[in-house]
Design goal:
alpha/beta; Ubiquitin-like (UB roll); Elongation Factor Tu (Ef-tu), domain 3; Rossmann fold; six-stranded antiparallel β-sheet; binds flavin-adenine dinucleotide; binds FE2/S2 (inorganic) cluster
């Protein structure tokens, strides 16, 4: 097809072996084009870190973005034409080899959006709970567990933030953002005022509630509470007969938030167990709950995990250590969904 005569140049990308084609705009990543065309391919972080979106270019010109490290895409892979779809810009018509996913999750179309800040309150000393009201479009349907990409003024790149509430028409979208020292995106979000306008796109992400007909395990650390809260809101919005556990890891009591809401939910639903745990609480007079790393605490509390589904969200070390415990407990890899940040 070649370059079009439009102001923004477009290229045709052929996906082998399916033969499906998609149009990619200049400046748009291969992954963004695939998602917006409803093409289901594997992906995770969307920022060149997790390598989940690796594919091979068979023909054509392209540019791999600087954010892709040697670790995410090694030198010999680059020489063989491998790229990360989330971090590759197209410079001519392309042919790529990529496996389509047999997805058991719902697909919701991606929209660019504009929204107004309606609330910004602190959950802890460094986590803000921010509510946006979508103004254009007025609704964007998403699955609990998914995230939006937010435009950060002064930055070329967006930042991902998970929705903390279940989708509901009239669309107030809630985010929990942890302020990272010198972090441009998190400080922008935490410093938003009521009435400010925020832009972005979404929804993205594959962590979605898959199966309600079994016991479920939810694990979060820090602002990883956000997608887990949304998933639990969805779970308990309909009758749920099985057991659900929510293990929440924080460093000290000052890092806990929304605990009263979870305790209240546990009172209403005897099949729901909330276990907050502190890793750095050395004064037993101040805390009589679980103490230690969340992975060890899960191992101590749950004996048979064989038939469970698990949903995890938190820092990489928490995900890694928790997955180790879950594998030892008998959970299979494809029964675990996670987002790490
Ligand atoms: C799928 C997905 C969903 C996400 N959802 C959420 C969410 O719901 N809530 C949320 O708070 N964050 C979430 N994040 C993380 C978020 O996208 C940003 O990475 C984070 O806010 C830091 O961005 P920044 O611009 O403030 O920091 P940057 O400017 O990117 O980094 C500043 C410094 O902080 C370090 N740093 C970066 N990220 C972190 C981190 N998470 N913790 C500690 N240090 C860090 C960097 O190494 C750097 O030194 C999510 C990320 C992904 C991939
Ligand atoms: S590297 Fe994580 S989605 Fe592309």
């Amino acid at each position: 097809m070649g370059k079009s005569k439009m102001a923004i140049e477009t290229y045709e990308v052929t996906l082998e072996p399916s033969g499906r084609t998609m149009i990619v705009k200049e400046g748009q990543t291969l992954l963004d084009a695939a998602i917006r065309n409803g093409i289901q391919v594997a992906y995770g972080c969307r920022h060149g870190s997790c390598s989940a979106c690796k594919c091979q270019v068979l023909d054509g010109d392209y540019e791999i973005m600087d954010r892709v490290s040697e670790y995410s895409l090694m030198g010999f892979e680059r020489e063989e034409g491998f790229v990360l779809m989330c971090s590759t810009l197209v410079e001519s018509d392309l042919v790529i080899e990529v496996e389509m996913e047999e997805s058991n999750t719902a697909f919701f179309p991606v929209h660019d959006f504009e929204a107004e800040v309606v609330e910004n309150k602190q959950g802890t000393h460094d986590i803000h709970m921010i509510k946006l009201r979508l103004t254009d479009p007025l609704h964007i349907e998403y699955a609990s567990g998914q995230f939006f990409e937010i435009d950060i003024p002064g930055l070329d790149e967006t930042r991902a933030y998970s929705m903390a509430n279940k989708y509901k028409e009239g669309n107030i979208v809630e985010f929990h953002v942890k302020r990272v020292k010198d972090g441009k995106g998190s400080n922008y979000m935490c410093d938003l005022h009521v009435g400010d306008i925020v832009t972005g796109s979404g929804p993205y992400g594959k962590m979605q509630l898959r199966d309600r007909e079994k016991d479920l395990l939810f694990v979060a650390g820090g602002s990883g509470m956000a997608p887990i809260k949304s998933l639990l809101e969805q779970l308990f919005s309909e009758p749920f007969e099985h057991k659900a556990w929510f293990f929440y890891g924080a460093r000290t009591k000052n890092d806990l938030y929304l605990t009263e809401e979870w305790e209240e939910l546990a009172k209403q639903h005897p099949n729901f167990h909330f276990v907050p745990a502190l890793s750095d609480q050395d004064n037993p007079d101040e805390w009589n709950g679980e103490v230690g790393f969340i992975a060890d605490i899960i191992g101590r509390n749950l004996e048979n995990m064989k038939n469970m589904d698990a949903y995890l969200c938190g820092p990489p070390i928490m995900i890694e250590t928790t997955c180790d415990v879950l594998y030892k407990g008998g959970i299979k890899g494809n029964n675990i969904s996670f987002d790490e940040f």
